[in-house]
Amino acid sequence: MKKNIYILIGVAASLVSLFLLATMIYKQSSTNTPSPEGTQLIEMRAKVMGDADRSLGPSTARVVVVEFLDPECESCRLMHPITKKMLAEFPGQIHFVLRYMPFHGNSVYASSALEATARQGKFWEALDVVFEKQPEWGSHQNPQPKLLMGYLKELGLDMARLEEDMKDPAIAARIEKDKTEGLALGVRGTPTFFINGQMMQDLGEGPLRSSIQQALATP
Amino acid sequence: MLTSQHSILFAWIVAASSTLGSLFFSEVMRLPPCVLCWYQRIAMYPLVLILGVAWLKDDTRVKLYALPLAVTGLVIAIYHNLLYYKIIPESISPCVQGISCTTRQIQWFGLITIPLLSLASFALLTLLFTLPSRPRSLAS
Fold first, then answer.
1. Which of B25, B37, B56, B100 is the best substitution to test chain A (most A C-beta atoms within 10 A)?
2. Max alpha carbon distance in chain B (Å)?
3. Could you tell me if residue B140 is inside a domain?
């Protein structure tokens, strides 16, 4: 019995050490990736941005922030005011691009509604409403996506046109394209941010601000 | 031929390595486990504890208790691999939300994938629990 304990502890310690060593090597290799420069940077930025048809800020800005979001995701809702705050904090210095990554049950529905509002020039106002009212229409226990229509109506949208536009296959294709490209870029959760083509590892106001500052400071 | 005691220690190492490996994929590499991966984890994780206790207590009867877990895991792993390698169409897969069970997240040397590693572990465990082994008295 005593001998068995020693063997068990020895093997367990070796396995755990191996695990910790692998973790260290993995973390080091992922942080040591050299920052891309010149044409490589431009290529990476373009790849992450897609068509950039839902964007804010000048396209010539030094920092391109791309967010893959899901309208039904709670963390995206929490990050939404933070991204707006960053745009206000760094005026004219950020080109913000929004892309879809529908992971939840009603995400495609909500994303289609958002895309349809863009055709009436109310995309960003609609995005605010979608996130503000998310606990009501997107509750995981009892999702009621149809409630969205009532909230969007208050923005003065032509609802008949909106519902018609939502069925447009071009909108479905647009959302699907974002998702496919996002998965290929390694997006596994929402929201995922890319700063000048590089994926942000930590979420939150602090990490987002420091990533932007770092990108601004890079020559 | 392994002794019964040695096969328990060997099975424990297989279960512990699989457990740590799966935690490495999800917690370090941040690859989200799909639904079928979770079911396989449910069958694998308890084995680390019960095989560990059995090894300490020299209790070879543990194979009887561990076998149902290993076989359950093996059946799910076979199903997962059939889906993964498109032998069964995904339309009948239970994964409708979250990450799909057929999403290729890792492919080492063009061959080794996470579902394949799981299948290998459960197959090895099932063999260790069913193959006859030498009793201890003859071994020592």
1. B56
2. 54
3. no
Test A27 with B28 for CB contact under 8 angstroms: yes
Q: What's the total number of domains in chain B? A: 1
Separation between Cα atoms, residue A58 and residue A40, nearest integer Å? 21
Residue of B nearest to A24 (CA): B28
ipTM of the complex: 0.76
Q: What CATH number should be reported for the domain holding residue B78? A: 1.20.1550
- The distance of A31 to chain B (nearest Cα, Å) reads 13
Asked if A7 lies within 8 A of B9 by C-beta distance, the reply is yes
The β-bridge partners of A198 are A195
- Rounded distance, CA A103 to CA A189, Å? 8
Residues A3 and A44 in one domain: no
Tens of pLDDT, residues A124-166: 999 999 999 998 888 777 788 888 899 999 999 999 999 999 9
Same domain, A110 and A53: yes
**What is each CA distance from A35 to A42, A196, A197, A198, B29, in whole angstroms?**
12, 10, 10, 9, 20
Task: Give the count of domains, chain A.
Answer: 2
Task: Supply the range of the domain harboring residue A27.
Answer: 1-33
Is residue A129 located within the same domain as residue A184?
yes
Domain range for residue B104?
Answer: 4-135
Chain A residues whose CB is inside 8 A of the B56 CB are: 1, 4-5, 8
Give residue-wise pLDDT tens across range A37-64. Answer: 667 667 777 778 877 789 999 988 889 9
A191 & A107 share domain: yes
Q: Per the structure block, which two tokens stand in for B19?
A: 């457990």
* Binary contact (A8, B20; C-beta < 8 A): no
